[in-house]
Design goal:
By secondary structure, the chain is of the alpha+beta class. The chain is about 45% helix and about 25% strand. The protein has helices at about 5-10, 20-30, 85-90, 110-115, 120-145, 150-165, 180-185, 190-205, 220-225; strands at about 30-35, 40, 50-55, 60-65, 70-75, 95-100, 100-105, 165-170, 170-175, 205-210, 215. The longest helix is centred in the middle third of the chain and has 27 residues, at about 120-145.
């Protein structure tokens, strides 16, 4: 199987600032792996399986406790999976599961760790990526501790609108890319409770729910509730 080109790797934010001479050994060490829908790529607490970067498809990062799951992120093309093991030498800090068919670039753990620690720009990029995810997790933990479900629903909708919303007839339209279960998991509740909150917001005139999208109609009130 052909290795990715230096030009391809330059499109990956984690690798974008590396020189061509530094990208060549990374490209040489990479291989591709494919997972079917819902297949586990690695489990939280498991020995480091490798450095994974999404080539195509999506991956869910989860914290799992008994029969409960907390969805912490959905990763898209060019996103790296769990990077923590490359900084502390420990196990994976999250569970990664395919969201539909997914193809990943992977470098075995020992080779990836050697490349990271011997390439200062690579190490700096990894540390920045881990820092950004830790900030997101800290914000999520704060929301779970101090905000009720309605506030968390409003914040999740506003965050999605900021990231990918489009203007539509005086409101902002966001695509319903998450299932009801995934949305509930991301805000730390169960599907029925999250859905009741959404329907209450719709009844109050703050948003409109359609099959494929949600239109936010009153951003000011949603922000005040978030």
């Amino acid at each position: 199987m052909a290795t990715p080109s230096v030009r391809e790797l330059k499109t990956v934010p984690l690798l974008a600032h590396l020189r061509a001479s530094e990208l060549k050994p990374i490209a040489h060490a990479m291989r591709e792996v494919t997972y079917g829908n819902r297949k586990v790529i690695f489990n939280e607490g498991a020995h480091c399986e490798g450095l994974f970067i999404v080539k195509a498809g999506q991956v869910k990062l989860l914290r799992v406790s008994q029969d409960k799951e907390q969805l912490t992120a959905i990763l898209d093309k060019n996103d790296p999976l769990d990077l923590v093991p490359f900084l502390d030498g420990g196990p994976h800090s999250m569970t990664a599961r395919a969201r539909g068919p997914v193809t990943l670039y992977v470098i075995d753990c020992a080779t990836a760790r050697d490349l990271i620690w011997n390439t200062p720009l690579f190490l700096s990029a990894v540390m920045s990526a881990v820092s950004a995810r830790l900030r997101n997790l800290a914000a999520m933990a704060t929301d779970l501790a101090f905000k009720d479900v309605n506030a968390r629903v409003c914040k999740a909708l506003l965050d999605q609108a900021k990231a990918e919303g489009t203007r539509y007839h005086g409101g902002i339209r966001i695509r319903r890319t998450l299932s009801q279960r995934e949305f509930a998991s991301m805000i730390g509740t169960v599907r029925e409770v999250a859905w009741r909150s959404l329907k209450k917001l719709e009844a109050d005139g703050l948003l409109k729910i359609d099959r494929r999208q949600i239109t936010l109609l009153d951003l000011e009130r949603l922000a005040a509730m978030a």
